[in-house]
Structure of Alpha/beta hydrolase:
Amino acid sequence: MSKPPTLTLPREARAYRLATARGDFAVHDAGEPRSGTALLVPGFTGSKEDFIALLAPLARQGFRVVAVDGRGQHETGGPRRESAYAQDELALDVLAQAEALDGDVHLVGHSLGGLIARAAVLRDPAPFASLTIMSSGPAAISPAQQARTRMLLDALAAMDMEEVWQAMRDLDPPEAADAATPPAIGEFLRRRWLANVPEQLVATGRQLLTEPDRVAELAAVPLPKHVLSGAVDYAWPVPLMDEMARRLRARRTVIEGAEHSPGAERPRETADALAAFWHACRAVGPEPSRSITRFPG
């Protein structure tokens, strides 16, 4: 679970509901599209707030940045049936969000959002200027995280959301432990969890357990690609993401000092890496770089 470092929107940003052909989605929207527009898709149990620290630095570099709560996440809401959260449905939502924005869109998917963003691009790459897969791998999550996710799914079947929230504190991986969470952030995390639609969590949790390797399909799509992660990751091992980037012939960025949520843990470095990639896309076309870049933390 990503922990945003702040809940205060920068002065460049506003919160509203983005109207699309597939319904309205809660978003944070910052900046003007002088250099392009980016759509940021959060991960499992996440929300638009996971990207809040990226908004101002990316807006200052000339990008309009739109971070979204997906269907069934936090402030967007959604149906109480699991079929509404099939990956194809969520990919169609991303395509509708992109179509509602002006011009070609730089798509960023974090964790589960990376799998959903990949599915959207495979379905129709036309609305997108590039794809960044952030802290997301080629297929299902690591065996250790699969075990934790199965425990969470079992808990969701047996308990209500408040009870699961209390039990879930014991499921956090040791790698995710950090300094004490500020009370306001802790209360937000609980409030966000309770706002999630349980059926969304069940359906997307199963996706994390069963996602097939679609890297070869994605490599065939003529779109600039970028694989970005922290230096440590408990959901997908970093060497696995290195190899995925090679298979995709994609730019590879490692944010030193960050783990599974570089946008929240090292926002300045992550924003610089994203902006550099997007500017390179405009400058040299569909294959801006294949090297590994390490941003010091």
Summary: The chain has a mean pLDDT of 93. The longest strand covers residues 13-20. The chain has eleven helices and nine strands. The CA atoms of residues 224 and 285 lie 8 Å apart.
